[in-house]
Design a protein that fits this description.
Layout: H1 2-19, H2 28-34, E1 46-51, E2 56-63, E3 66-72, H3 78-88, H4 102-110, H5 135-152, H6 163-191, E4 201-205, H7 212-225, E5 228-230, H8 234-237, H9 241-254, E6 275-276, H10 278-284
Parallel strand pairs: 1-4, 3-6, 4-5
Antiparallel strand pairs: 1-2, 2-3
Amino acid sequence: MALSLGIGLEFSQRFVRQHNKPFIPIHHMEAHALTVRMLHPVAFPFLVLLVSGGHSLLAVARGVDDFLLLGQSLDVAPGDALDKVARRLSLTKHPQCSTLSGGQAIELLAKDGDRMKFPLTTPMGKSNDCCFSFSGLRNQITMIIIKKEAEEGIEEGTLLSCVNDIAAATQHTVATHLAKRTHRAILFCKANNLLPSNNPTLVVSGGVASNQYIRKALSLITEREGLGMLCPPAKFCTDNGVMIAWNGVERLREGIGILSPNVDVYYEPKAPLGVDMTEEVRAAGIKLPRVKLEIPS
């Protein structure tokens, strides 16, 4: 990643200097958050859930470069967890999944699975904040796989007969975790008047946002709390050049972060997004009402 960023940055700086054009640095997660404004007239402020293979965070977008960070992943991202479960299940050997990504394979197989066959513990059930954790869930699933391989007398790398059920349980638990943390973020925003009283909106973006089951889980929460929910089309959920270009348009319109071509710019791995409010959210200690997530596959 660092090498590709370095090459891209070097080319960009040469280009703007050669043609005497302004340089607009872009925050990757800011670009994900603002993509929806290219397609819908979404006014600030709005709540945004960004979930991908490398990131998981909840933030209030108050402006093009003005964010309040409510929670983020403490370890791995949901997309990474889904991909690793799919790899451990050897889903590339499944005839329906050979050309799919790990997350896509989990979503496809889960449609024909029974999640109740493998009840999993939703992460961070006793933490009253908006942060995420997926490493413990991944470990739970790995232990189940090892146990089932021993029961079926097969070695790692061979498809289990219950692979659909494991996929369904995995997807449901990821969806439940995301929905619960988002629910708390909504309640925190309401308590602190961080969203408009008329037509408040949750924007869901990032590669994992293309998962329809996860979208349904989140929609149950937004409908309950009176928010609208918007997701970019799947082709704009995953990393793409269009979202970066659109972020540049937004910044150019507002005159924010526009640099002269001769300014030296450096890329920053894992750059923080906005003002960190995670401790304030934790201190609020918001307990969630019981919500049964009945999600049709």
